[in-house]
Design brief:
heterodimer; A: 793 residues; alpha+beta; Phenylalanyl-tRNA Synthetase, Chain B, domain 1; OB fold (Dihydrolipoamide Acetyltransferase, E2P); Phenylalanyl-tRNA Synthetase, Chain B, domain 3; 6 domains; 7-stranded mixed beta sheet; 19 helices; 40 strands; 25% helix; elongated; B: 336 residues; BirA Bifunctional Protein, domain 2; 2 domains; 12 helices; 10 strands; 42% helix; 20% strand; rod-shaped
Amino acid sequence: MKIPIEWLNEFVVIDIDIDDLAKRLTMRGLEVEGVERFTPRFTGVVAATITKIAPHPDADSLSVCSVNTGKEDLTIVCGAPNISVNDRVPLAMVGAALDKDFVVGKRAVRGIESYGMLCSEKELGISDDHSGIFILPEEISTGTVIAESPIAYDTVIDISVPPNRGDCLSVFGIAREVASILRQRAKLPIFTLDAASDQKIEDQVGLTIQDTGACPRYILKLIKGISIGQSPFWIRRRITRCGMRPINNIVDVTNYVMLELGQPLHAFDYERLSESRIDVRVAREPSTFTTLDSVDRQLEPGDILICDGSGPVAIAGIMGGENSEITASTTNMALESAYFNPFSIRATARRLGIRSEASLRFEKGIDIDNVGYAADRAMFLMHQLGGGTVINGQREIFEKREPRTIYITYSNINGLLGTHISHEAMTRALRSIELHVMKENENGFTITIPNFRHDISEAADVIEEISRVHGFEHIPDTSPVAVLKPQKLTNKDRSLNIVREYCLGTGFFEIINFSFFSTKDIELFRIPENDERSRYVPIMNPISRDWGVMRTMMMPAILKCIAYNLNRGSKNLRFFEKGKVFFQGKPHDIREETILCFALTGREKEYFWKEKYPDYDYFDIKGIVEGLMEQLGANCEFSPTAEPFLDQRCSADIKIDGVKAGWIGSIRDDILKVYEIEQTIYCAELRFDIILQKGNLTLQYKPIPRFPQATRDFSFFVDDAVPISAVVQKIKDISPLIVSVGIFDMFRKEMRSVSIRVVFQSFEETLTDERVNSLQEKIIEEMTNIDGISLRV
Amino acid sequence: MDISGLKEKIKSEISRIANADDAKQVKVSILGRKGIVAEYLDKLKTLDKDQRRDAGKAINEIKSWADGRLGELEKQFGEIERRKREAASRIDITMPGTVPLFGRKHPITITLEEIIRIFSSLGFAVEEGPDIESEHYNFEALNIPSDHPARDMQDTFYINPGIVLRTHTSPVQIRTMEAKLPPVKIIAPGSVYRCDNDISHTPMFHQVEGLMVDKSVRFSDLKGILTIFIHEMFGPDTPLRFRPSYFPFTEPSAEVDIGCVICRGEGCRVCKDTGWLEILGSGMVHPQVFRNVGYDQEEITGFAFGMGVERIAMIKFGIDDIRQFYYNDVRFLAQF
């Protein structure tokens, strides 16, 4: 809400610095988001009176004016149509600067010398109006230097009004808070409405309300013979400063009073109201209605409608109809000032997608007790601006409501806030914002809540008001009184810590991607329909199709992220991401799972002077996974995978106790191509929840053996059909004395040759050669018994 | 026999030594089988018994002195020559070293861990909740009625009517209070989602929620705890202020601002000339929220707070575009 200070000054006396006021409003909960200071950007402009206007002999659209500045008479050539003799207008004299780089000079216009130029409001930076010359208000006399006159200055504060404070959506509403800050009382304008006593409004217009729940108060007033025209400068300026556009005097006054008092108003062309009546109704069936912006609107049951004798003329609180709007030829006008049910207005406005200044205020709830005053205020201003005759009295239906009362104890207040505020100070604080104590006893008091405060309905709300006025800065900082309890670290937390440390130690950059991806990613990854990862959770209103559904895999986003970095010249990447994936089960059954994802591409370092780093391969990513699994105490196996997006040559499923805990390998190059990646990506997705279940984080010491180890090396030809992991396991199973089985060489001639180092160790004795030799024989025997394995001699 | 002549001879031999090789040669010439000392010992035969004993003793003294002196010189010249040799084949010690690979935590993780560390040390337990949440937990139970502006489609991602991507971590408050009786003292970190995408908004971001409920938890306690947090997070000299605000699920509600870290309160573009930066929202738990979870709001009180992790990270690290967190550019990540 934008508040011009000169307007605010009509209700309270601002006797402090504006920046200070802004700070104090902010500390009251009315955050001032900006202070805009308007100062003249021009020099050399004075108020001049037009003494003569003659047509330009050589140009139809120009006139030659004589103007008097109080000191001299000058000739000015001017093209604006809106001036007449005796008008006082701003004259930019020769040498005047209207902007940084626009200096007015003497110049000949079609053969006639012009000693300056007459200015529009826009040219002076006072408003956006460029339709004609700025006719100065009466209080500015001839010869006044405009840059020194008050009209050239203004300060506007922009307040972010909290959504529950509808009462602050007006200059007067803000004035009430300012008055509390400055220990004053905000005063409403005093005026006397001149009404014709010879006509009775009851004879002129009828009013009924079908449902006072939807509309508990409605007032109609009439003015006849009004002339429509432009509003005076001061009204237009205030409306403009508040961010609205001036239209004509009638519309401007309705907006002006809404900005001033927070009461939205609506003007009807009285002559166009069929049967001269207004019936406030709640729609029972759908219909269509053309609003004054010429849009056909669909009305639904529950909408509040303002009707005349033949049907709707306005959607209550939201927008008037084309059929009754004020036009240039309107002379008799009916004014509506009403209170509509906030929930109903909000529902209708939301459905129709109309958020007007009026509906915004009705939605938040206006002051039902102020509806009549606002109507009078508008009538007074319209009469002042447009003349005519105000018809005496008003049509009104008003279902009065008693102000709410709330009882609250002093100990409740100080107990919740942690303060020692005295009863008197509480009463004073509340009184300053017009919450009055109705009754009190030694324990507490009963507060009356004025009808404009829709946000106060229970004790906590009153406590907030006291704390706000008292000042948060005057509430102490304390330590809570609480029982100390140690915080348990869950297995999940411990495992995640291990994962994070592991990733740091192994050179991974952690990345974070959005939890969305696209159904196109699922397609590109060739995920079959019966796969869980095809059962994605769609978003009804996504930001874009690329982020249209919740991700069921992490890898697609990581590929995009790799492509992003490759495009920017980073060719060697090690990425790690921990995140959630989402699966749609039965309707309303959505499962969230935590995934760990690793990806490698390029090599460890681009170059090094000592040696060349090899490109990453399958065994780099496999080693990462093996190392992590060991850290987490999980035994995993690698078996051939059917994952449709992996290159079958070097990919595997990761299983723990036979349960699939993820996959590992390189992404098919045809898929990479679509993601615009030209280098091989080795990656793995691990299901963290399964690893957590199967892993074991218990740390247990085993004694270090006191006896020496014995080592034997073997070389076998091993057929490709026999997986090495099976060979290693087989050897380990031969004797508990075999403590380590490692592969130290592998090459391929006609057959694959594998060299294996076996370490023997006893915890009880030093192993004799005979003992080791017999185990060696056993190993050779068992190995060569396997189909596809023979000893290499 | 002229024993003193022996010493002079040896001295003059030793004085010739200029390097390790000389030392070796001279050692032979003095102590060797045909050396000077041997020569003198040979001459002992010509002396009588008494003379022989005295002279023998004297020669042996000179011999052991020479031995010691030569050993010293050998060591000394040996050392000099070793240094010379090393210097001659020294590698360029300024060539780049073999830096081991090391990883980086994402700045959001760094910030989250720091927030969690501070609150854990103050006795808050960590709780989590689902990202896909019912409207009931995300809105209604938090006293955000169905006609509240926050529930417009333009702010909230809907999965289907009734199910949303949580717009804040506050539903974890409700889930925790439903699951256990007071006292409750938790924080809840996690991802949250809103339909926004520009220089200061991403459709997914992170929040940390906090909740403390017990007999007689006071607004002053909220101020105390959050002051400790901010001084830990941004340094003990960071100015801060609590400012009245509005949230449907707290009453009274307070926004917490810290003095702008860019301009130190002078006023700049980042703080919109106010000198202050909004850092978190907080307040006393609204009685309606307690009623919604079946807590007796006559018996207990509580405070709650929530903060945006990206916002804190941006302020802490001076990042001016929130989208940087999600581009995952290694040139960005390598800075943390």
